[in-house]
Amino acid sequence: MVNSVAGTNQSHLTQYIPPKGEYEQFENEAHYLEKVKEWGLSTKKEFWYKDRNQHCLVTIKGYEIFGDTVEFNTLVIEFPDGNLTCIHPAYLKEMQSSSFGKEIIIQNSEAGSVKAKTAQVNAESAPSADVKPEKTPKKPKEKKEKSPKLVLPEEKVHFTGRVKQFALSWNHFNEDNDEVVVFEDVRIEQEEPIEVGLAWGSHSKTLKKLELAPGMDLEFDGKIVKKSLPKGKDVEDESLLLDVSVGYKINNPSKIVKK
User: Fold this and answer.
1) Are 11 and 83 within 8 A, CB to CB?
2) Structure pTM?
3) 219 lies in which domain range?
């Protein structure tokens, strides 16, 4: 058995990542065959390992299990010198290709200090401890002024506003789009008026009887709550899709007057 290719074996330069403590070992030959097939590997006993420092045959000694649902595996492979390291199954599979790593193997003699590439390590080269990279001063971020949080009245109040547009909104309960009316320049008229801005409400039978149109000024009574307008789904007419977010809903508008 040939364990290395001449001119490509500098195993002392390979960075090994040994398993953390105990790892899963194969119960028997059938278990081994089942696992290598699951990983997409052939059922042979030895596999090629190729990096900048060595090109040799390794064996799979076992595997580690990880992930919230313990469905992922990292292989534990053994080198001819007895060293163990962890590697991702897909990466070991790539190494079996005849074209894998040809260029980096040829350059090995000129790159004695290059670290090995592994399945779990894809780190960038760290800067020298003696040379600190110059830090580019960061421009202070401009703080965006947050709009003051509206304190909404719980009781029914009087509103003024304007019809902005009609839109479709997805209803999660009946899994279909509902018709809604979007209002702009909404204002709660009271001793200390509250500027709401955008709000929405259901395009009810009552509102449909009024034959509302975009740009129409209104005044009405109703209750307002903090509730975002869900965007419509599978809407053929894009004009019925709202391109801005609306965070307030007006319920049960009544005493509606066109101005």
Assistant:
1) yes
2) 0.44
3) 157-258
